[in-house]
Fold these 3 entries.
Entry 1:
Amino acid sequence: MLLEKLHALYHKDQMAIHEKVLVWHDALKLKYPNARDYMLFHLISGSTFKGFNGYFDFEPADSVEAFIQREYRAAFPPTTPGELG
């Protein structure tokens, strides 16, 4: 589901989301020397994680999942009350 949301964001405005992803990606690399040990880091890096045995996501303040969800909600706001997007 996250990959599909990320693809939808790139389809809607490739340059805008790419810039945000690069900033997020680089900030994570600086903060976490072991960033490549996190599966969702590979998701935003566009690298392969088949057979991955590391961690899934960063702590809540740095969560890649939360980043993608925030960007998706901003780009595709709910159209009906109560819809989470």
Entry 2:
Amino acid sequence: MNSKEEQTNSEVTNLENKIHIEKQKDANYINEQTGDKKLDEKSIDIEYDYKFGWSSYSEITNGRFAMIGFLAIILIELFSQQSFLKWAGIL
């Protein structure tokens, strides 16, 4: 790159930084950001409340129990030195 290109690139970067700083100083910009964050926190709380049927709460709970069950099968196979199906008397 020549020095003119480097100078224009740095000027653009400086201008972008100044615009960003001016936006941060604006009270409405800060309120918009914090308002969005508060809205997101509320929606997360509402999302994890228990609801009957297909919901994210049910999916997370079922997933956790599935992980516990899978870990239990692995531990049974490690400690008994035989397959889970043989240990359970299925085979």
Entry 3:
Amino acid sequence: MFNEDIQYVSGELCVENASLARIAEKTGTPCYVYSFNRIKRNFLELESVFASFSPLIAYAVKANSNIAVINILAQLGAGADVVSMGEIRRSLTAGIAPGKVVFSGVGKTGTEMEFAFGNGIGQYNIESLEELHDLNAAAVATRRIANVAVRVNPDVAAGGHAKISTGRSPDKFGIPLAMAEDACRAAAELSNINLTGLGVHIGSQIMDVAPYVDAFRVIACKTVELREKGYTINTLDLGGGFGIPYDNEKKFPYAAYSDAVRELIQPLGVRIIVEPGRSLVADAGLLVSRAVRTKETPLRKFLILDAAMNDLMRPALYDATHPLAPVVMADEPGAELWDIVGPVCETSDTFARQHVMKRQDRDGLVAIGLTGAYGATLANEYNSRPLVPEVMVKGSEWKVIRPRPDLAEILSRDQIPDWSQN
């Protein structure tokens, strides 16, 4: 949970040099808090690890789409992996160069395609023959040429949960390997399509290099085969999915991954793209929550927080575990077993079961760690709970980078039809 940018100082948890308790007092709880320097450090470390093959590091915006977060990476030269018009707009607003934006996703609409063309997006990863024809139509309409990579499905299972495995044959993603040549042939025949390469993405929260090796072998062989048949394959988008240790797992073996790229991909002489998301931002963020009350039954002790599953979906959605710790260390010795839950009317609104922690008083602050990725981006307003604020910290300075909407603002989006009064 903790790193050099998130530490206890005199018994109080701080992000860089800023007190979480002070931030919570000013912004209210729950709130997300991110470390500027941790995000920067993560990018530079990844860039260093991958230096031998110098990929375009296209940040997977879905991990954390706050413009202030994307801007940190833009300043460092990152690109962006996006899957919607909204993510394109966020990336460009944050300062990502349009030519470094990779437009992925199985459901790109005509409107989104035309918007992307109008903004000079660099690459389109296509995932079906129908999408390829739709993309060409949008390119013709906007008088643009689409640089296209065909995303293949290598039938490789990987990822921390079945719901985030994306490279198996039954999954909706990518074009089956046997149809890759058909897609390349179609691309070559279309007027406004420029076939540039292939792409692959096998899942998320992957902790082992073996599935990548399997996928790289598949895509390398397909590259050689397609080149022999006259197709231009100058770019390989290797996807992302690098996992982080949520629960005492070993760290992802970046050195072994780099070795696999150098051995299997680099000899092909291609431009390489990687799409990290979680690994850049997860350990830079905390969700800070306040204890509402405790509740004890003959079987369990519950610590009820003001944060809920709508604020952090991963435990309910993926049975995910996150580290939890008090913001202020308790003086009392000993610890107890707690089920740590939120106020939403779902049993799945549970952050941890039988978690060892010292008793927290009413209004005590608890930090849920490793929530810089897939925290705020998956949040919603279930139970009419407002989205929580996001805060960025750099050194001792901090700023709210997304305010909490008030209920009046939320309610104003609903409209009662005139005819419903009759």
